[in-house]
Design a protein that fits this description.
single chain; about 140 residues; alpha+beta; five-stranded mixed barrel; two-stranded antiparallel sheet; about 20% helix
Amino acid sequence: MKIKFSFLFLFFFIFFSFAQEKAEISEEHFTYLDIKEEFDLVVDFTMVNPECATKQQNYYSIIIGTTIIEDKIERISILVPCLGNEFIQGDLITIKPIKAPKKNIVYTIRNYKKDGQEYSDVFGAEFRALWGEIVNVL
């Protein structure tokens, strides 16, 4: 009877250990917005991913900017399939939402230290995100 109990306890311990690891991994991905129409965005930051020059993987560039969503000013991340040029802070651009690519995306990870501990997260994931393309520079 002790062996069965020990085996069952070990099984649950292993199961919950893996469940915690999955939860930590899923937190690294973006929280996506559900926007269907074009909108204007004031650029705060642009990162043109140099890896876009290679055709082996699915990389993206990112624009972090400010817009109005449901009568609130909000900072968001726009994921662009390989942006061709950088924008400077203060540029006003129009974004057209697109469908997220179905292929596996190679996320840009940033590593940093805070209070003496090292952290890793997906760059831009601290803001809600949207896949989009630039249709106009105002």
